[in-house]
Amino acid sequence: MNALAIDVAIVGGGMAGAGLALLLAQQLPAASIALIEQHAIQVASQDDLKVPSFDARSTALSCSTQQILVQLGLWQQLQHQVAPILQVHVSERSRPLGMLMRAEDTGLPALGYVIENRLLGNALLEAVLAQSSRIRTISPAQVTSVTLSRDYATLMINNAANVSLDAKLVIVADGAQSALRQQLGIASDDIPYDQHALVANVVTELPHHGIAYERFTDTGPVALLPLQDHEQQHRAALIWTLPDSEIQAVMQLPESGFLLRAQQRIGGRCGKLLSVGARYCYPLSLIQAREQVRSRIVLMGSAAHHLHPVAGQGFNLIMRDCMGLVETLKPVVMKGGDIGDVAVLQQYVARQQWDQQKTVTASDWLPRLFSNRDRPQMLLRSAALLGLDFLPGAREWFAREATGL
Predict the structure, then answer these.
(1) pTM of the model as a whole
(2) N or C: which end of the chain has fewer CB within 10 A?
(3) CATH assignment of 4-369?
(4) 137-150: b (≥16 Cβ within 10 Å) or e
(5) Mean pLDDT split into 10-residue runs, the chain, 405 residues
(6) How is the chain split into domains, by residue range?
(7) What angle in degrees, to the nearest 10, is found between the helix axes of 14-27 and 117-130?
(8) Rounded to an integer, what distance in angstroms lies between the CA atom of residue 64 and that of residue 356?
């Protein structure tokens, strides 16, 4: 079997893999790129996309991610499909105090944007397929082995053609339970939260007015994110954290019982919850790879760090990491250097280290802090929320941090 020679192979598609492939193609115009996806790559018709889905997951895009989409030329298409976040209201259940962050305090038009995953994913995949001369897509396919040598990594791929690739750089982005990370012998620290995230789209009685609600409860955080209205129905994305012991019972509730239970958690934000679409759930844990880079290998996305969904920073951190990697590789390519050199890849890790640490720490610390029912901790939380709402500059600083800028 003759191996195909490629500069960069991305193992794992999805939104992160597609976004990285597009950034590489744009910023490294001489590089050859392969995107290897386990599932068949399919795009929906524009007619199908015109009807909002009540069974879709959604993603909160920070302003930094929005700027990346602008750079990729996709924002003009997507801006009509997003709901802007004009305010973020943070509160604790049964406590009167809270914090309100406003876009106007940052001088930005929005603190972020919410979009259904199917719309964002479809736009990214369409753009990838439109660059077939630059980005080779191999799907459905699975990488069965990676063999490292001095000058390249050889990937054996199980697909219809049973091809193999010789790549100068392999980017592992195949998810939190990355099979390739395990195959490479890269250990990870896995800390289960003993919680599940339940996600669903809901119809609300009142409009959201661009407000995202994050409410901390004794069983975990619950969020209500704005979505675009459709046919005079007010829509929002519900992200509800529940203990492992309760998740199946809540998933199996009839619609009326589910809406009543969710209403008790989120309160009267946006009035009554009127209906709910399909419900999805997944276990929550903090997963961090002990190594992000080796010679000719980079771990990216959830394969490198998988976060609690509080504050919705997971995908946004991934996109900032993608941009950081591309900007690290660009001058190396311009000088004719080796993009798989471990010294080069360590520069990427050093560049992103602070952003990764503060984002991972916040996503881990916040739900732990607010789930602690110790009275001194509760008083401290209330004082902190009050201080953030009234101390000069504190609320504005948090708002700027939320934008990812």
Answers:
(1) 0.89
(2) N
(3) 3.50.50.60
(4) bbbebbbeebeeee
(5) 84 89 94 92 66 69 95 95 93 68 89 92 93 92 91 90 89 93 95 93 95 87 92 92 95 97 90 93 94 97 90 88 97 95 97 94 77 54 49 55 63
(6) 4-369
(7) 40
(8) 14
